[in-house]
Amino acid sequence: MGAVEIWNAMEVAEEARENPNLSSDIRSSSLTVDHSLSLPHMKPRIIELCKDLFKKWSELDDSRFSVETVSGGITNLLLKASVKEESGNDVSVTVRLYGPNTEYVINRERELQAIKYLSAAGFGAKLLGVFGNGMVQSFINARTLIESDMRKPKIAAEIAKQLRKFHEVEIPGSKEPQLWIDISKFFEKASVLEFDDSEKQRMYKMISFKEIHDEIVELKELTGLLNAPVVFAHNDLLCGNLMVNDEEEKLYLIDFEYGSYNYRGFDIGNHFNEYAGYDCDYSLYPNKDEQYHFFRHYLQPDNPLEVPDKDIEALYVESNTYMLASHLYWALWGIIQAKMSPIDFDYLNYFFLRYNEYKRQKEKSFLLARSYLSGSGTR
């Protein structure tokens, strides 16, 4: 990351320290950690970072520290750093390294601003410090969900309840929904790329940006007619961003890097798309009964069986129309990542998987929305 991003992170941390209503102990360090290092080579750098951020650890011997990988997503690397303090206490923190070049698709300042308020509202891990290319958070003692967990009725109900609470958090600043702004930015970046790799360039040339542009315009117009509520949305609720402590039966929403004010239906439709996993097996997309179960717990967490049918129907249409926007969003994201990310993942193929699924679902979803808007309901 460049100096500008580091400066922004420092500025946000400084502001957080000065806000009496929020955590007053957010620390900052100008150190960076090379994402490409192997764990043994990265460990001394992580220890140095921890000592720089947490002064009470600065004199401790390196042998008191241990570092292990928690997960490596396709944008971030999560590490667990543990230290045995002089008192004998074992303390762990999570070190999150931003993926290289992710500032092309993620607004880090927006993320750091939101994370303070979400943390104050009880969501995710507590932000403890920021550094040149990442952040340090409290360690959550829980396991990351796998795709099949999300469709278990008990877990699905809990995700719905938590998401409802998440959507009720107030984040200061503009409440303008970001979906079409972000898609437009992604489109501008994605449509002017050139790849050094000839096979990637050949695949890239097969993409019709004129066609994608027309799809964006048409879908934006249709979704605009639904008058979906605008909420502070997670925008990336895949299984890797959900954790559960099975013993305590406690669910955690984590990683708010794509969070912004957005349309309620986009957040839910995007979550349903994630049932398919990175392999994009859309036969796993939740059926109507599974969706209705989710909607009942989202709309009335305390009385899920008393939700009026018309409210469920409206959310069903909204979510399954914005589901299309989720495909366009991540398809375009995939093209940019194919160019910018050094992570070994076939992002261009991911574009085609998402865009082809958009085209497969378009007619059915448009029909559903138009039929609902004309007053004939979803049946």
From TrEMBL:
Its EC number is 2.7.1.82. InterPro entries: Kinase-like_dom_sf. Gene3D superfamilies: 3.90.1200.10, Phosphorylase Kinase, domain 1. CDD domains: ETNK_euk (cd05157). Pfam families: Choline_kinase. Pathway: Phospholipid metabolism; phosphatidylethanolamine biosynthesis; phosphatidylethanolamine from ethanolamine: step 1/3. GO terms for biological process: phosphatidylethanolamine biosynthetic process. GO terms for molecular function: ethanolamine kinase activity. SUPFAM superfamilies: Protein kinase-like (PK-like) (SSF56112). One of its GO terms (cellular component) is cytoplasm. Signal peptide: none annotated. Belongs to the choline/ethanolamine kinase family. PANTHER family: CHOLINE/ETHANOALAMINE KINASE, ETHANOLAMINE KINASE. This is ethanolamine kinase. It comes from Lithocarpus litseifolius.
